[in-house]
Amino acid sequence: MTTSPSTATGLDPQARHVLDLGRQAAAPPFETGTPEEARRAYDQGSPDLQGEREPVGSVGERTLAGPGGSLVVRIYRGQGAPAQAAPALLYLHGGGWVIGNLDSHDEICRWFANIAACVVVSPAYRLAPEHKFPAAVEDCRAVLSFMRDEAAALGIDARRIAVAGDSAGSNLAAVLSLLARDDRIPLTAQLLLYPNTDAAQTADSYRRFAKGFGLTTSTMAWFRDQYVRDAGDIDDWRVSPLKTKGLAGAAPAFVAIAGHDILADEGEAYARRLQDDGVPVVLKRWPGQIHGFVSMGRHGPASRQAVEAAVAAWRSFDPG
C-alpha cells in the first residue's frame, strides 16, 4: 500500500472556498425536503463547482434494455484512445444513490477518458427512493455485461475493463468488483474516490466531521435510508462491502481519501482489508480536502490531480 505525502495541517484553500460558498448560499439540507427537491438543488449547484468541459474525441448516448426498463449510458472516447481494443472504464456517478446524473459528473468522465486515452461508459442507473437497493447494483452489473458482450462494437478490449466511481458511485464500483470476481469477469482495476463502504455509519470520522465540512452525518443517514429497503439491508455486503467475508481475488484498487470527510475512516478500513486479503492497493490521501472534491474542478487543481493519480494507479496495475 502506498500513500501520498501529507503536509497539510488544515483545510485546503479549495475546500475552504467551496465551504464558504455553501454557507453563503444557505441552502437547506437535503434531508429537510423531498428527493425531488434535493435533485433540483443539486442540479442547480453542480455547474458552479465543475470546471469547463474538456473536449474529448467523441461523446454520445445509447439506450440499453436494463433490468428495470430503458437504461441510458453515455459513452466517451478520449483523445488518443485507439479506435479498436481501447482500455475501458465503467464510471458510476455519486450522489448518495438519490441525486446525481450523467451531467453532474460529465467533467470527471471527460478527464478519465482523455488522461487514460480510454473509452468511458457512464450509466444513468436507477435512483432511490423510487428504486431501492438492489436496483442500482443490478443496473451497473448489466452495463458491465454490456461492455463485455459488445466490446468489439464499442471498440474496447474486454480484457481491459476497469470500474470507478465517487462516493455512492464508488460504493457501487466496489460492489461490482466483487460481483465481477464471483462472475469470473476479469477487471483490471477498481478506482474508488472517497468510497462509502459501511452503511452502519459508526466510524469515528462521522463524529469528527459531523457538521461543517459539506456532507454531514445527518445527510448521509438520509441518503442511506432512502436507498435501503429496511434495516436488514445495512448488513448486506452489496450495500456495505466492508462487511463481506473476503476480498481476495477482487480487482486491484486505487482508493482516494479526503481528510475532512465523514467517509474517511471507512475508506481507509476498506483499503486495509483489501491489502490484508492480498489485493494490490494504491491509497492516496488528500488531507485538506472535503467529500466530493473531485467534482469541484472550477475551484482548484486537486480535482483533476486525483483523476490523474487514479489513472496512474490503473496503468501500474495494467501496463497494457
From TrEMBL:
UniProt entry tagged with the keyword Hydrolase: yes
Keywords: Hydrolase
Keyword Cell inner membrane attached: no
Stretches assigned to the Alpha/beta hydrolase fold-3 domain: 89-294
Family (UniProt): Belongs to the 'GDXG' lipolytic enzyme family.
PANTHER family given in the database record: AB HYDROLASE SUPERFAMILY PROTEIN C4A8.06C, ALPHA_BETA HYDROLASE FOLD-3 DOMAIN-CONTAINING PROTEIN-RELATED
Name by which UniProt lists this protein: Alpha/beta hydrolase
Native organism: Mesorhizobium abyssinicae
